[in-house]
Design a protein that fits this description.
The chain is an alpha/beta fold. 42% of the residues lie in helices and 15% in strands. It contains 7 helices and 5 strands. It has a 5-stranded parallel beta sheet, sandwiched between helices. α1 links the parallel β1 and β2. α1 packs parallel to α5.
């Protein structure tokens, strides 16, 4: 009987830059240590993996309004604290560059290369009027909470960010 690969599951609930960076930092670290890692993007976390221009013509008025206030794309994410109309975000990006830390836009393909799985929550997608075509190609699958729960029940590490 062989040794099973350890797994980690991370729920990415927040669509804020600093929290997304934390999720990707942990995911890429765990993957580089040989763990199978799954990121489950739900609610505002979907903004991390949506294209910058999203939205089908079939959106309802409330979904269109939500989309106008909640623009997707990793490049557009704000800080959870001290964003200061983008000044805090710019300062953080300068510090990350100075300390040779990859940006979120760089971490997304890095995570894919390490084998991290990206799952988007179909229930949240329906609420926000998002379709599969609204997402970046790194997203592996579109699933419901039952898939997340099944993955999480077998995971050694399970985080909610």
């Amino acid at each position: 009987m062989g040794e099973e690969t350890e797994t980690a599951t991370i729920v990415v609930f927040s669509g804020e830059l600093d929290r997304a960076l934390a999720a990707f930092n942990i995911a890429t670290t765990a993957a580089s240590m040989g763990m199978e890692v799954t990121l489950f993007f739900t609610f505002w976390g979907l903004n991390v993996v949506t294209r910058e221009k999203t939205g089908s013509a079939d959106r309802k008025t409330l979904q269109k309004m939500m989309g106008m206030m909640n623009k997707g794309g990793a490049r557009r994410l704000k800080l959870s604290r001290m964003n200061m109309f983008g000044g805090g975000k710019a300062a953080m990006k300068m510090l990350m560059k100075e300390y040779h830390m990859p940006s979120l836009e760089e971490m997304i393909p890095m995570a894919k290369e390490l084998g991290v799985r990206f799952l988007a929550c179909t229930t949240s997608m329906a609420l926000m009027g998002l379709e599969e075509s609204d997402f970046i190609p790194e997203v592996d699958d579109f699933v419901g909470a039952a898939t997340y729960v099944e993955n999480a029940s077998r995971s050694k590490i399970n985080l909610f960010i």
